[in-house]
Automatic annotation (TrEMBL):
<protein>
    <submittedName>
        <fullName>Universal stress protein</fullName>
    </submittedName>
</protein>
<feature type="domain" description="UspA">
    <location>
        <begin position="150"/>
        <end position="288"/>
    </location>
</feature>
<dbReference type="Pfam" id="PF00582">
    <property type="entry name" value="Usp"/>
</dbReference>
<dbReference type="InterPro" id="IPR014729">
    <property type="entry name" value="Rossmann-like_a/b/a_fold"/>
</dbReference>
<comment type="similarity">
    <text>Belongs to the universal stress protein A family.</text>
</comment>
<feature type="domain" description="UspA">
    <location>
        <begin position="1"/>
        <end position="136"/>
    </location>
</feature>
<dbReference type="InterPro" id="IPR006015">
    <property type="entry name" value="Universal_stress_UspA"/>
</dbReference>
<dbReference type="InterPro" id="IPR006016">
    <property type="entry name" value="UspA"/>
</dbReference>
Amino acid sequence: MTRPITAGVDGSEESLAALAWAGREAERRGLPLRLVHAWRFEVHDAFDAGDRDTQRQWVRDGLAEAARTVADGHPDVTVTTDVVEDGAVDALLAAAAESEMLVLGSRGQGALVGFLLGSVGQQVITGARRPVVLVRAGDEPSAEAAGREIVVGQHGAPEDSAGALRFAFETAAARGATVRAVRAWTLPPVFAYSPGSLKLLDEAGGLEPYERKALAAALQPWRERFPDVPVVEHVEMGSAGQVLLTAAERPQLMVVGRRARRTAVGARIGSVAHGMLHHAGCPVAVVPHT
C-alpha cells in the first residue's frame, strides 16, 4: 500500500504554505497527496454560524478549493481530501500514522528565526510515529534551488539516527540535492571514561577521529543505498543544536531525529529538535527514532 503525503489544512496562511510544500514533495516522490482538516461543530452567540451541516459544508468547500489549487499546480499528483470531526491533535496523529509524512504550517517569528510551535504542533510532533515537517508561512519554492543542502543530524550509534538519515537521503534523491550529515561532539568529563572507551579512543587516534569514524559508519549503508546522492561529512565540536544551525549557510531542509520523553509537565521532544524548530530559517523535518 502506497502511503500518501498528508498536509494539515485549516485555511490559514501557514497551512497553505505547508500545502504548497507538500504538493511539490508529492510530485517529486510520485506519491498521492491527502489534505486533512480537523473540525468540530461550534455554536457562536455573537453571529449566526449555521447548523452542523452548514458548518461541515463550509469546511468541505474550503478544503475542496485548496485541493483544486494544488492540483492545478501539480496535475500528475492524485489529491484527496478528508474532513475529520475530531480534535486537531487526535485527527492529525491518526492521519500521520497512515502517511509517509505529515506536513504542517507554523507561524514564523521573523525573517531570521524559526517557528512558533503551539500546543497542537508540540503534541503532534511528540506523538507522531511518522516524520512531521514544519513549514513557515512565506516559504518559497526558490528555497529548494540546486546547491542548497539538506542538513541532517547524526548522533550515537548508526541505529540511533537511521530514521533521520533515511528521510534525508530519500528527500535528497528526489530533489537532486546534497546531504550534509552533521555530528557534534563535546569533551566528556574525565570520570566518564571507562577503560573500554579509552581503548577505542586510542585505536581511533583521538576524540575527533573517533567521531569521524562513527559518522562514516552511520552513513555507509545510506551511501550504498543512494550512490548518486552527494554527501558532505561534517564533524565539529560544540553543542548539537548550535553546530546544526551553523553547519550550512542556507539549507533547504533541516532533518533531526527525536526521542520523545515524558516528564511531570508533559511530553518533551528533546533540546535539539526544540532548538531547530525555534531557530531554523528553513522547513524542519522531525523524524521519530525507530
